[in-house]
Design brief:
Shape: rod-shaped
Strand content: 5-15%
Structural class: mainly alpha
Order of helices and strands: HHHHEEE
Low-confidence stretches: 6-10, 152-183
Largest sheet: 3 strands, antiparallel
Helix content: 55-70%
Number of strands: 3
Strand order of the largest sheet: 1-2-3
Number of helices: 4
Length: 183
Amino acid sequence: MMFPQSSSRHSGSSHLPQQLKFTTSDSCDRIKDEFQLLQAQYHSLKLECDKLASEKSEMQRHYVMYYEMSYGLNIEMHKQAEIVKRLNGICAQVLPYLSQEHQQQVLGAIERAKQVTAPELNSIIRQLQVHQLSQLQALALPLTPLPVGLQAPSLQCWVPLHWSRHENSIYVGMKGIDIWTSV
């Protein structure tokens, strides 16, 4: 016969179902614990993923805002450069009609105007900020809140915070925007 006798099978099988039942119960408990652990990890990772997606969306919004500001500032700088070019042309056309003494005074004034220092620019910028702030307060409009992580200067306006010259270029720093232009 290929199978053992039924008496030997029954004597060994009396311990087997209890032992199998015990390991099955343990296995189920372990699987349940592992499932709960994985479920908690999944929930934690899902919350983190949602948080990162929210931060990504916020960063993209800030990027678009800064890009638009940069684009607007670039256009304004080109506009101001064109105005300067035209005013220089007008001065050059009018200069020959002045007396020699006045020509020297005008040329000196033009050269002094080209030598703007950083403290002078900062003073002009502060005056613009005060003027813009007073206009906003007169209109009773709330100031635009700053993006997360940026601190407000003493006066909150979207104008350049500082300028500096470096190798025939002007640096304009604006709350996260750096622009260089040749002069």
